Amino acid sequence: MTYETRVGTKFPLVCPHCEKPTLATVASEAPGGGEEEPPYLLELVQCGTCHDPFVLIEEDWGEGWDGEPLVGWPKQQRPLSYNVPEALRREHEEARQCFSSKAYTATAVMVRRTLEGVCLDQGMSSSTGRPKPLFKMLEQMKDEGKIDGQLFEWAQELRVLGNQGAHFTGTSVSREDAADGLALAEALLDYLYVFSAQFIAFKARRDQSKKDGQGSSSE
Length: 219
Description:
The protein is α+β, with helices and mostly antiparallel strands. Helices cover 48% and strands 16% of the residues.
């Protein structure tokens, strides 16, 4: 297969490293694909702002390269499911943006806000309708069976990390702790709003199938 090389070509995009609009330069490229898959083109690209490299992937579905390359590396963060309430998605996205800006202490604070939002969305409040302390809301979620022991432990660690970020202690939040906090918060959101709902739907479908099977066998 022949194609026109794009090595040295500059084009505008948003860098996956520094997340700034930039003019990127194609440093090298390599085509691939064959009988089992459509042709594709890997491009090693360098950001014109931070100068970090990344890899783009373009595919050819019979009309040439599609002109809409995907970032193959570094791995991009997946969007949260739309089953997660919009307000919580916004809080978690802001935490991600803080992390991308290397504001790791702010990341921890936003993770804690997300956690507090989860508790309130799940109805964890006092009899007067006023919010309880976050520790008490998490305990209530565990007591009501909304989260198990391990998720409760995760959530408590996120709460402590958030407290570390919110109060001046002379100790900053590390990049590793901020990254783990983001990942654990995402896992908690997935568990409560995606996997739990999916399991309930699966169980209901299975139970209905059993009932239908019993009804048909008795006729």
